Amino acid sequence: MTEAVEQFRATPVALNIRELPVNTAKIIGHLTRGEVIQKLAESSDGYWIKHKTHGVEGWSSKKFLEKLVEVPPTGGALPWMAIAEKEKGVIEIPGKENSPRVVEYLKTVTNIGPTWTSVDETPWCSAFVNWCVEKAGYAGTKSALSTSWLKWGKATTKPVKGCLAVFQREGGGGHVGFFIEEVPTYTEIYVKVLGGNQEHADTQIGEVNEKHYRKSKLLGYRIPSNYVPSST
After folding, report:
1. Biggest alpha carbon–alpha carbon distance for the chain
2. Full-model pTM
3. Which domains does the chain have, with CATH numbers?
4. What spatial distance separates the first Cα and last Cα of the chain, rounded to whole Å?
5. Tell me, what's the pLDDT at 1?
6. Using the 8-state DSSP alphabet, how is residue 2 labeled?
7. What is the residue-averaged pLDDT of the chain?
8. 46-72 pLDDT, tens per residue?
9. What's the pLDDT score for residue 199?
10. Rounded Cα distance, 213 and 215, in Å
11. Are 213 and 191 in contact (CB under 8 A)?
12. What span, in angstroms and rounded, lies between the C-alpha atoms of 231 and 35?
C-alpha cells in the first residue's frame, strides 16, 4: 500500500521557494497564489514543506500553504475520522477527578480560560472535534462553541462520512460531531454521529461514542472548503 501524497495550495500572491528550510536561505524560485504542490518532506520543526515545482526543488513556509483535503472515494471517510474512531470510550470522570484525555481535547480551544479547560465537566464536543481535525494535520476553529463550525469550511446538503454535523440541542445549546449516516424511520430522519460529550446510554455521563440525533434539529453539514477530487 503506497502512502498518500499530501498536497498544498499556495495562499500568498507570491511565495518564496528557498534552498534550505530557513528564512535566510537563498531564494531559488516562487509559487503564485493557487498553485498546488506535492509534499516531498517536512522540516523537523514543522515550519517548512519541501517540494519540486517548475523543475525547482526547495522549501516553502508551511504557514502560507493550505493543505488540501481529498474527496473520499465511495464508502471512504475524511482523514480525521480514523483518529476519532480510536477515541471511542473516552469518558468523563465523575467528581473532583478529571479525565486527562478530555482535558487534552479542551486544550485545543482558545476562547475559554484555564479554569474551564482543566475540568472535564466543561462542554467538550467542539474541543473533541478540534482535537481530531488538528491531529489529522488540518485547522479547526479553536472554539469551544459548537456553532463555530457553522463558519468553518462550506455548507453541503450531501454529507460524506466525517463531515461536520451541527445541531441545536433539546432544551437549548448546541452540539457538533462527525457525520456517519442518515437513518430514516417511520416518523422522521435521524443522523448518526460520532462525537464527544455524548451521553452514555446507561450512565448519562459524557463520552466519545456514536449516537443518533433528530435531523429536524440539524443546523447544517460542513465540509472542508478546499476539497480536491480524489485520485482513487
Report:
1. 66
2. 0.72
3. 7-67 (2.30.30.40), 80-228 (3.90.1720)
4. 13
5. 34
6. P
7. 89
8. 899 999 998 999 999 998 998 877 656
9. 92
10. 6
11. yes
12. 18
CB 66 within 8 A of CB 27: no
Give the C-alpha separation, 58 to 51, whole Å: 6
**8 A C-beta contact, residue 48 and residue 59:** yes
User: 200, 81 in Cβ contact below 8 A?
Assistant: no
pLDDT exceeds cutoff 70 at 75? no
**Are the C-beta atoms of residues 37 and 53 closer than 8 Å to each other?**
yes
Contact 18, 28 (CB under 8 A): yes
At 113-171, the pLDDT tens digits run 989 999 999 999 999 999 999 898 788 899 999 999 999 988 999 898 999 999 998 76
**Three-state secondary-structure class, residue 173:** coil
What is the CB neighbour count within 10 angstroms for residue 229?
A: 7
10 Å CB burial of residue 109 (0-12, 13-18, 19+) is buried
Please spell the DSSP secondary structure of 45-98, one letter per residue.
Answer: TS-EEEEEETTEEEEEEGGGEEEPEEPPPTT---THHHHHHTTTT-B--SSS--
Residue with cell 476539497: 227
Residues 6+ away with beta carbon under 8 Å from 216: 188, 189
Grid cell locating 194? 460520532
Measured CA distances, 4 to 20, 47, 60, 232 (Å): 24, 20, 20, 10
What the block records as the C-alpha cell of 106 is 479542551
